[in-house]
Design brief:
The strands form two sheets. The chain has a seven-stranded mixed sheet, sandwiched between helices. It is about 35% helix and about 25% strand. The termini are far apart. Helix 1 packs across helix 8 and helix 5 packs across helix 7. It is α/β, with parallel strands linked by helices and about 260 residues long.
Length: about 260
């Protein structure tokens, strides 16, 4: 049996599957409503940052409210797209681990970026981003819920689920005096109109884990069979799955004073 086909990162197939995901995702309206309410608590002259901006969907949302928005993106190709789409944004090369911001920020977003970082690095990346906040600032870290159907697919084939809450437990214990952490959930979901579209989005999700992360890597046939059984309804000609978004809001504790050394 042939091994499951995987998208190469930044390939045309990967970009097409990502476009299909954005087109079929039901989370965007809920997330945008939530973020607009969060943004409304800050004046237009506040500074915002989109960590791992990609092609800039959330960068554009931030620009609706704020006169100054930083977009951090390590990919030269994506930075070119960002500069064409949002010439008013300040586009910076770098990652959550390396970027140096010109100023402290009032609102930071880390949306679906952690799929591209090893799980053990999430807590440190969150704390580093939070330390760029002003005293009044907030950092929103956004990821799919651990119990989403696409996470269950990863586990079925022997890979770890993506678990934001679990990954941040140690950081909360270690940095709970320095920052306040609160969690909330939003409704998400994927709705597809063809099997091929469903298959492409599920493959995109599978590729969020490296090939070596799977203790029982599927063949192409096994993967297609899983998608047909769990994500596609041939009778109705519709597919997809429900999931929640988990959002961790991190705020500096204004009364915190670092221990003397």
């Amino acid at each position: 049996m042939s091994a499951v086909e995987r998208f190469a990162w930044a390939s045309p197939e990967y970009a097409e599957a990502f476009a299909a995901l954005l087109r079929c995702s039901g989370e965007r309206s809920h997330l945008q409503r939530f973020l607009r309410a969060l943004m409304a608590s800050y004046p237009p002259d506040a500074l915002a940052v989109d960590w791992g901006a990609g092609v800039g969907d959330l960068t554009g949302l931030l620009l609706e409210r704020f006169r100054r928005v930083l977009a951090i993106e390590p990919s030269p190709a994506l930075r070119c797209i960002l500069s064409r789409r949002y010439p008013r944004a300040e586009i910076l090369d770098g990652t959550l681990s390396t970027a140096e911001l010109p100023d402290r920020v009032d609102l930071g977003l880390i949306s679906h970026v952690f799929y591209h970082l090893p799980d053990h690095a999430w807590a440190a990346a969150t704390i580093r981003a939070a330390r760029w906040l002003t005293e009044r600032g907030v950092l929103a870290v956004i990821l799919k819920d651990c119990d989403s159907a696409c996470n269950r697919m990863l586990e079925h084939f022997g890979a770890r689920r993506f678990d934001l809450v679990g990954a941040l437990v140690a950081a909360i214990h270690r940095h709970g005096a320095e920052f306040d952490f609160t969690f909330t959930r939003l409704q998400g979901g994927v709705r597809t109109g063809s099997y091929d579209e469903t298959l492409a989005i599920a493959r995109f999700m599978l590729c969020d884990r490296a090939a070596e992360a799977f203790s029982a890597p599927p063949s192409e046939g096994q993967f297609r069979d899983y998608v047909r059984r769990h994500f596609w309804d041939g009778t109705s000609g519709a597919g997809g799955w429900d999931y929640d978004l988990v959002i961790c809001l991190v705020r500096p504790n204004r009364w915190y004073r670092p221990p003397e050394t």
